[in-house]
Write a structure and sequence with these properties.
The chain has about 120 residues and is an all-beta fold. The chain is built from no helices and eleven strands. The strands form two sheets. Strands 2, 4, 5, 6, 9, 10 and 11 form a seven-stranded mixed beta sheet that branches. Strands 1-3-8-7 form a four-stranded antiparallel beta sheet, with no helix packed on it. It is elongated, with a radius of gyration of 14 Å.
């Protein structure tokens, strides 16, 4: 069993900041990458940011320079620092984990958090 627990969402005014966190737990053998995706009403889920085991990061063009993804390997936790938030950032944010478990150590699987609502409005 692998579980992702997200926190940190909420309501913020334009220009404000939020920090999302996602803690992974369970029978994790190895983590290859963690990331954040978001889905706004009427739109498809889109990539926000990812970070690999080696520390390589990737950001959507719409959030470059405003969002920062980081990871605490000891805690199996990934963070998303969101600054200069805009109304178009409003969405449900989902944590994603690419990992293998102790049961199937050679198989990479994707796991998803429950989602946390971020609303940017005046």
């Amino acid at each position: 069993q692998v579980q992702l627990v997200e926190s940190g969402g909420g309501l913020v005014q334009p220009g404000g900041s939020l920090r999302l966190s996602c803690a992974a737990s369970g029978s994790i053998f190895a983590i290859y990458a963690m990331g954040w995706y978001r889905q706004a009403p009427g739109k498809q889920r889109e990539l926000v940011a990812t970070i690999t085991r080696g520390g390589a990061t990737n950001y959507a063009d719409s959030v470059k320079g405003r969002f920062t993804i980081s990871r605490d390997n000891a805690k199996n936790t990934v963070y998303l620092q969101m600054n200069s938030l805009k109304p178009e950032d409003t969405a449900v944010y989902y944590c994603n984990l690419e990992a293998s478990s102790y049961l199937y150590t050679d198989i990479r699987m994707d796991y998803w958090g429950q989602g946390t609502q971020v609303t940017v409005s005046s």
